[in-house]
Predict the 3D structure of the following.
Amino acid sequence: MIKEVKVPQLPESIADATLVNWHKKPGDSIQRDENLVDLETDKVVLEVPAPVAGILKEIMKEDGATVNSGELLATIEEGAVAGEKVVSGIASPAPEKASEPVKSGQQKKSAHKLSPSVRRLLEEYEIDAGDIVGSGRGGRISKADVMKYVERAVAPPDKQRDAVTATAAPTGSRQDRRVPMTRLRSRIADRMVEAQNTAAMLTSFNEVDLSAVVELRKKYQGKFEKKYGVRLGFMSFFAKASVEALQKFPSVNASVEGSDIVYHDYYDIGVAVSTDRGLMVPILRDADSLSYAGIEKAIAGFAGRAKDGSITLEELTGGTFTITNGGVFGSLMSTPILNMPQSAILGMHAIKERPVVVDGEIVVRAMMYIALTYDHRIIDGREAVQFLVSIKETLEDPARLMLQI
């Protein structure tokens, strides 16, 4: 029986996907649920598993093709096995073949246990997965494992060197490399330009004395981690403070649709996560109902899945407000760009000990500059400034979060 392999249903916000690469070729045997092909959308890489076991009969779309929901990708001859003849739907076994010895130290790893990003790296550098010892759970190979292997022993393949557009030149001469944007990077670029060309963006700044938060973390970090199995970070404090401020200033949690302002009476906060493929913004759904531990666990999960390519479209879709932390890279101050169609984004930065005046005395405090970029079409300067002041007051006196004042 012939089974069809189709593009899975894509969310409404995703128009199409790009076929990245096939992991099988016509005539290959495949197992049920084994990954056949990777599809890259504007946000994530999707794996398309085999619906049945059999032989990949025909491929309809080649690498690099743009595909839509429900479009036919390939056909599978169900129940057949490579090297067998199929008669009346019953497969007769092929002659036995002497098994090949496995190289010393080599451990075969099935392709469906590798994330899309890891598979791409292995193919790019022409590495056998069996040559790498995985550091993840159950020996799972991570991108870091591949790159360490590359740094030790593998030079980039010829196709990498072919990307150099300059003609051959003497050693030491200057060269240019031309590399196509990934679909994600291209989409990020489009969204940044859209934000610049659509919204009336303006950025306001303030500074926060995080000494109280730093002391809280220092005092309770061990107990918190022991009880909840996750570290107490700064992001949970900022997410909580943001929810408090958003409740006071609904326009900051709103968006523009045509000539209407849409006020969102829920708090889905996006948390920007940096990956090798580009910036991703997974969503903390109903952040107002999450505990500190719930927020920290969710963020840790997002970061891990974003980096290994297993994060889902649902986790990246929506959001009413975004927090981005340039401080992890050492940024002291920046003006973040709106994540359209949201009307505001909060920028965190590096914490620096600085001398400040408190009650007429110069003291050293843990200070951070914070920035709010907002759409001036629906948010007035007064609201933006007061929003930042609310964030500042809440973080400088964390007891406010417990008392909700």
Q: What stands out?
A: Confidence is low (pLDDT under 50) at residues 84-112, 154-169. The first helix runs from residue 116 to 124. The chain has three domains: 1-90, 116-163, 183-403.
